[in-house]
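Below is our example:
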Amino acid sequence: MCIFFGDASVAFTIDAKEYELRRYYRCYALFTGERVTPTDELLKSVESRSKSGTEACMALLDRAMLDEKGSLPAVNGVTDPLGRKVFSRLLELYQKELSNPTYISTFQSPRFEADLFDLNESGYQMIYTLFGQNQAYRDLVTRDFALSAKRERKEDTRSIGSVITIEEPTFDSAPFSTTNPRTNQNLMESLTERFKPHVVQQGLLQGLVRDERPLLMPNRNNANMNFHFGGGMLGSIPYMFANTNLFTPPDGGFKTHRALTASMIEDTLCRPLPWVRPSDAIGYVNPASKLSFRTGVSCAHCHTSSDRAAAGLREVRYDKSHAFGVSFWNRNPVSEPAAPFPEIEGDLKFANRPSSGLFYYRTMNGALISQSFEGVKGLGQLIANLDDFYICAAKRHYRFLTGIDVDISDLGDPSNPAMLSKAEMLKRDLVRKLGLELKSHQSLRNLIKAIIERPEFALPGRGIL
């Protein structure tokens, strides 16, 4: 088979059967992290030409599809080892795509949070969008529940300070101590009598289920530590532990959820700060401000977007008066909105005011978006309607499957140093097309199939455009 790819310099001949075999060899290695064996049934089907390479790749992917109960396929009553291998491999890759794939140091062991909340939950949200039943890609940022792993295990004997066991949460009426949990043994002794939640399970994956554990804190009016903010992946407690660095009430000035906001946009839109052009920040500059980052365009270039978006996340609060992480403070809502940016420099009532934020962003094509939202849920719904959300997914899957990274930044930004070649622009156009198709059909499986069918997937490094 003679294949011409637009440029005679890269034309070459390859046998049709070999072409399909290379496609399957590559997807097997990517999906499992291993080399395919000669006894593999799907490989035999490609060799016999009863399946194309693409069909065999999709059949391999389908080995990891979850059933209506969230379980991986079983063979003779036992979880399919090949399906689990595919599922685990892609879970690992999805988790690595996150801007912060591990908890920030505050929440790492020996802190309790790392044992109560699964670090991989954000990865579960991503892979559930691929393998879950009847999932649309927009669900990644619009679900209202967290996910936990179903695992093969005996009773979990791990503990936190030798006190936490696998039981339903049980409490008594005694007040919860606020002493440092790392150093005070008395706290540990009192804790075992008052708080016995499920810890994160370990063992071989069997599937995913909704994480609806009630982790109620009696000393905080039964505030639920396992609360979900909406917004799919963005609203889970583990995502907060990986991306939140604000442990005092936000004031709209120096203290606000900039880091959390930046992670949310980078993880969903592939866009690090700044999100707008320097000229878009001029109206945010306040030379008289006491906050140095608002007195000039160079800092306002980022802060004009991050600070106003962070204002919409003020509902996210960390209660450091106990050892177990995010919960609600007792809010005393204030009806008046905060002062407008950039005048606001520190509002003691900011955290209690309505969670109104502004999404200020230049799209891949240079269009300026200035849209209000409220809370994590509102931001997730806003993101789900953007073309860039789907183009970002196409960019990441294209890079994973072909090894080719594609620039999807705002090329009209005069501060953007990117200078793309003709070949790079063609790839940019392709990724945009794949992203818009994903927005239409909402299926990650279809996106993956479209990329696998590309010649550059089967024949990497051959200069194919």
